[in-house]
Design brief:
Structural class: alpha/beta
Low-confidence stretches: none
Largest sheet: 7 strands, mixed
Number of helices: 16
Distance between the termini: 40 Å
Oligomer: single chain
Strand order of the largest sheet: 1-2-3-4-6-8-10
Order of helices and strands: EEEHEEHHEEHEEHHHEHHHHHHHHH
Shape: globular
Length: 382
């Protein structure tokens, strides 16, 4: 039974397996915007995911995007841009609302006890990666293109990136955060952002097979059953997996984690030896990006090492709101997505010019702890 009309921002379906248990499917439904994550999408998904979590008949949840080009190409930031433009240099309630709800949804996926399968076909960037990173079963395909490209818009890798970038092989989180480099399916598996590689054209077959599984009431067993099925499906697809772009530079990227400061890290990236297009594009993105964002990424990864998941989202919410107030985020969106002149007027010429008090202010929470919009997040955590 397909819920909602075809013009709904998210489509919902519940398929009944052979033994009566149900498989819930949520489909991001904005093909024109490459399924960019909007506030109405988040507001639709949050209560539905909570309902599915509580429903004993639902064995697992599948998240996918409509069309073949993208699971989700990031957050729909045009409304955020308009809010920043209308109220420059101030606290914007809409910005706080958008990120609060988005991060609440991301956290729910991270902590969802039932299996959550994300079909990460095509473009998976920014807010899309926020949905995918916390899922228990993350599928990538031959066309998967994953990135956190926020350096280019004067924001920073958010949606839990302060948590998951720190859990990658040494140096990888730093490299990807600073360059916004796009990675493929093999890279995603290598750095721990994906679990299995399956041919996209086999998705319908996978769903058909899921309906034959004897799902039970034991969550751990349902996780194992899903893992077994996906690994079996992967067997016939491995020859189609692209070659990793990160692995050839693994040793050099790992050494970034040992460098003493941000300037040394950035110079080391620019000095990486290699002529391939992927590395050249990563270097160009580093040169293009906001010097303020570079400082945020560097500091965020240092702070994130000791944070529990809920604290990571609380830190990021304050940081995102402060970035919107500062103006760098607004200018980055203008240059890349609004005017498309690719000539951002960053507030500082390079990372050496950025005053430390500017970065310190960005990391200062706009709220007292008891008033934080995400204060109740993760009360069950350590």
């Amino acid at each position: 039974m397909l819920e909602n009309t075809l013009n709904a921002v998210v489509l919902y379906d519940e398929l009944t397996a052979d033994n009566g248990k149900k498989i819930a499917i949520a489909t991001l439904n904005s093909e024109k915007s490459l399924n960019a994550l909007s506030l109405p999408m988040v507001e639709s998904l949050l209560p539905k995911m909570q309902q599915w979590k509580a429903d004993p008949q639902i064995a697992l949840v599948i998240l996918q995007g409509v069309g073949d080009k993208a699971f989700c190409a990031g957050g729909d930031i045009r409304d955020l841009y308009q809010a920043m433009k209308d109220q420059p240099g101030t606290y914007q309630p809409y910005v706080a609302e958008f990120f609060t709800k988005e991060y609440t949804l991301d956290y729910l996926i991270h902590t969802f006890d039932k299996p959550v399968l994300v079909w990460g076909n095509g473009i998976v960037m920014g807010g899309g990666l926020g949905l995918m990173a916390g899922a228990s079963h993350r599928v990538v395909t031959a066309t998967s293109r994953i990135a956190m490209p926020e350096m280019a818009i004067g924001l920073y890798p958010d949606v839990g990136a302060s948590w998951f970038l720190n859990r990658m092989p040494a140096g990888c989180g730093l490299f990807l955060g600073l360059t916004g480099a796009s990675i493929n399916a093999a890279d995603a598996r290598f750095i721990g952002l994906a679990d299995v590689f399956i041919c996209h054209e086999q998705k319908a077959q996978v769903i058909d097979k899921l309906l034959t599984v004897k799902w039970g009431d034991t969550v751990a067993l349902n996780h194992q059953k899903l893992s077994d099925l996906l690994r079996q499906q992967e067997q016939g697809c491995r020859t189609q997996m692209p070659l990793s772009q990160i692995r050839p530079y693994q040793e050099a990227i790992a050494s970034l984690a040992e460098l003493p400061d941000l300037r040394a890290v950035m110079q080391a990236i620019l000095d990486l030896a290699g002529e391939d297009k992927w590395l050249s594009k990563a270097k160009d993105s580093l040169r293009y990006g906001s010097p303020i964002t570079a400082h945020i990424v560097y500091r965020l990864l240092q702070l994130g090492q000791s944070k529990i998941l809920a604290d990571s989202f609380r830190l990021e919410l304050g940081l995102s709101v402060q970035c919107a107030k500062l103006g760098e985020f607004q200018e980055g969106v203008r240059a890349l997505l609004i005017d498309k002149d690719l000539q951002p007027k960053w507030q500082y010429a390079d990372v050496a010019s950025v005053p430390q008090d500017v970065i310190a202010e960005l990391f200062r929470s706009p709220w007292a702890a008891e008033a934080h919009p995400l204060r109740d997040l993760g009360k069950q955590e350590g």
